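In the design runs reported in the main text, the only information available to the sequence generator was the tokenized backbone. The following block is the verbatim input for one such run; it is reproduced so that readers can re-run the procedure and compare outputs position by position.
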């Protein structure tokens, strides 16, 4: 019982880490990254479609993203989606590709991005703590129903606390790496 609860907790905490990494991938650093535009929603034949399903996204230079649509007819829609997005980038259309040139980040923008990363890190830590709370509640219910002993309950609580601490450290490490990327000139 206790091991099953801990296994489920590990999976849910891994999910929180994975969601954080995907979320942080979309935050702009000083370098171009396909993750900036991957999930951009483009109107394609009346349906919103992720950009990665409509085009190849390449990084020919550190500050340039090139988007080559599979269907040339979608070029204008992709361009429009980039202009409407909150990326703050101006697409250059050469008839076959769209080029996005990323200007260097200002110091003020870097500080804003670091604050955004901090908020996302805190959200991930809250998710991990919520998993801990749920598992401890389940373990206490198991103990009340006499499915596990009081010793098993305490061991389980200690284990879930260790897991929570480990995942919180992982979140901090991911955040430190992302902040370093943002502040790198």
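Verbatim output:
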């Amino acid at each position: 019982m206790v091991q099953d609860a801990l296994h489920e907790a590990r999976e849910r905490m891994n999910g929180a880490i994975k969601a954080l990494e995907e979320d942080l991938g979309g935050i702009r650093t000083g370098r171009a990254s396909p993750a900036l535009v991957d999930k951009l929603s483009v109107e394609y034949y009346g349906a919103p479609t992720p950009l990665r399903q409509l085009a190849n996204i390449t990084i020919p230079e550190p500050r340039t993203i090139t988007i080559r649509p599979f269907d040339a007819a979608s070029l204008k829609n992709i361009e429009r989606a980039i202009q409407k997005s909150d990326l703050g980038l101006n697409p250059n259309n050469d008839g076959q590709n769209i080029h996005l040139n990323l200007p260097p980040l200002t110091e003020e923008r870097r500080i804003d991005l670091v604050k955004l990363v901090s908020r996302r890190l805190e959200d991930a830590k809250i998710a991990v703590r919520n998993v801990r709370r749920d598992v401890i509640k389940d373990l206490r219910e198991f103990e009340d129903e006499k499915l596990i002993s009081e010793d098993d309950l305490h061991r389980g609580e200690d284990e879930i606390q260790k897991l929570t601490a480990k995942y919180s450290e992982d979140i901090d490490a991911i955040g430190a790496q992302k902040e370093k990327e943002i502040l790198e000139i």
